[in-house]
Automatic annotation (TrEMBL):
<keyword id="KW-0479">Metal-binding</keyword>
<feature type="cross-link" description="2'-(S-cysteinyl)-histidine (Cys-His)">
    <location>
        <begin position="193"/>
        <end position="210"/>
    </location>
</feature>
<dbReference type="InterPro" id="IPR016213">
    <property type="entry name" value="Polyphenol_oxidase"/>
</dbReference>
<dbReference type="InterPro" id="IPR022739">
    <property type="entry name" value="Polyphenol_oxidase_cen"/>
</dbReference>
<feature type="region of interest" description="Disordered">
    <location>
        <begin position="18"/>
        <end position="76"/>
    </location>
</feature>
<dbReference type="InterPro" id="IPR022740">
    <property type="entry name" value="Polyphenol_oxidase_C"/>
</dbReference>
<feature type="binding site">
    <location>
        <position position="219"/>
    </location>
    <ligand>
        <name>Cu cation A</name>
    </ligand>
</feature>
<dbReference type="GO" id="GO:0046148">
    <property type="term" value="P:pigment biosynthetic process"/>
</dbReference>
<feature type="binding site">
    <location>
        <position position="189"/>
    </location>
    <ligand>
        <name>Cu cation A</name>
    </ligand>
</feature>
<feature type="binding site">
    <location>
        <position position="344"/>
    </location>
    <ligand>
        <name>Cu cation B</name>
    </ligand>
</feature>
<feature type="compositionally biased region" description="Polar residues">
    <location>
        <begin position="56"/>
        <end position="72"/>
    </location>
</feature>
<dbReference type="Pfam" id="PF12142">
    <property type="entry name" value="PPO1_DWL"/>
</dbReference>
<feature type="binding site">
    <location>
        <position position="210"/>
    </location>
    <ligand>
        <name>Cu cation A</name>
    </ligand>
</feature>
<comment type="similarity">
    <text>Belongs to the tyrosinase family.</text>
</comment>
<keyword id="KW-1015">Disulfide bond</keyword>
<dbReference type="InterPro" id="IPR050316">
    <property type="entry name" value="Tyrosinase/Hemocyanin"/>
</dbReference>
<dbReference type="GO" id="GO:0004097">
    <property type="term" value="F:catechol oxidase activity"/>
</dbReference>
Amino acid sequence: MASFASFTAPSAARTAAYPKTPQLSAATKPPTHISHHYSSPAGHRRRTRQPLHITCDSTAPNNTPVPDNHSPTSRRDLLLGLGAGATTALTLDPFSAALARPVRGPSIEACVRATAGDQTFACCPPSFAGVDIQDFQLPSASEPVRIRRPAHLAGLDPVWLDKYKRAIKAMRCLPNDDPRSYVQQARVHCAYCNGAYVQADDTNKGLQIHYSWLFLPFHRYYIYFYERILGKLIDDPTFALPFWNWDHEDGMPIADMFKDTESPLYDPLRNPAHQLPTSLLDLDYNKRQPAVRTKDEQVRVNYAVVYNNMVSGAKRRLEFFGAKYRTGSAVPVRQSSGSCENLHNPAHIWVGDSSRALGEDMGNFYSSGRDPLFYVHHGNVDRLWNVWKTIGKFRFDFDDYDYLNASFLFYDENAKPVRVKVKDCLDNKLMRYDYEERPLPWRNFQKTPASSATVANIFGGEKAANAAEAPAVELTPLTEFPLALDSVVSVSVARPKKSRSAAEKEAQSEVLVVYGIELQGDKVVKFDVVVNDDPANPSGPDKFEYAGSFLNVPHDSMKFATNLRLDITDLVGDIGADDDDELVVTLVPRVADGPVTIAGVRIELQN
Ligand code: C2O
């Protein structure tokens, strides 16, 4: 098994190895001349759709057309030297009480170039040196509430659409060193996600806002400021972003306004095959082996994925929000993403251009903020956070001190740096924005049993007629873990308690934990988890036997370890396994752009 000894959070050595990205002042910055979208080193961009040209008003002071002018330099040599001599041992539970402090991230002065694949990228914000960082204040209660509407419906309103396009164009036309510019807004995500930052209170530790409870609040603030900047640029305090309503059949395609190649909302770095009028987002996307489904089948699968991640698989906070992440936590240990994050991951891979090594734009966190769709996608994630809190018991925000006081830095609509705390974003109405109410067609989704006769024969059920002929599932003993997940693997896992009463089930969830998932951060890896299922014909998301999926969206180049937590309380009842001592858990690799190792599988009861 690969050792993690050489992969650690950014250390002092690393900070020294990477000189701070020079921040040019407006006066010294050479004018950027851009004749085409992204001067990219990859060079094999598809030409099937016309590149975007933005013409900025030359009489306006801010007339530099954007997209970005990154010229990534290969710094592979430095990357390889990254962790030399590091000794931090990775454990899967680094959150000891002694370390309990809120993440106060990041240290801007220690910002370094971000990594993706074997390249590095300039993603640090303009320097805060000498600038007073203000604490965030909620907007005044007299401000109008911005109402976010579904993109596919909002786009039918020509007045609003014109505002949105004008605002994005104005953002693209701001000079690149304005923190509100298109380039700088995209860099916010890059810096927080691709290894540019260290934690302000522990500069030996990197900062990562995915794979933990920081995921929802970070992205809420991110699009909050982005929306207010857009409103400010067109002088409209009511301006609201749309959201990509992919949890409703009508909202599953990319909305037309983003596909118009002449529009500032267009981004050429997308998978062209997914911008056809008939393409529906696949929330169970397997990249090179996309499932062939009819429209109705795709809608059903998407509803099932939403149901699994919002309802049955995330009855409690830890499974929905993700792991508790405090200052001192080593960043290569991303303890676990929540189902809110798992639900949102496939859209990144599906939208990005998979013919590019790094999957730009949406398919890598370093570049995803360059696509206007990113903010619209995250609008829906943000909306579903609210929805989750309304659909069952135990569905509250964390009230942990270290959650409420975790903080981030953003530039506001006036280009002033502000420090925000999680506790101020838990009620979006106080932030003066809200969502138009939408039906939740997935809310009472009815899953069905796997149809395979093998399943019935081996695991019981009405169809168990030919039990004698059924091939046995080949089990890998848990003692053979850790193992490389390069083929389908089934293990028998003991349950902490069987035959639980309804009251016991309500008091404690039964949670399946695939732990010690080790992979390279910049690789797409996806595997599905099914229970008591036929390994030769594993079930999809709409079946009882399907528990969930792991999917890594490429980000920084570090190796890391994480866990997948899936609530299987309902699943166990659905498959008739309440009285079983053990469950057969099958891991099904679906995408492997890099190796993945699994340390083990266990079942826990959780309050
Ligand atoms: Cu920070 Cu959708 O990712």
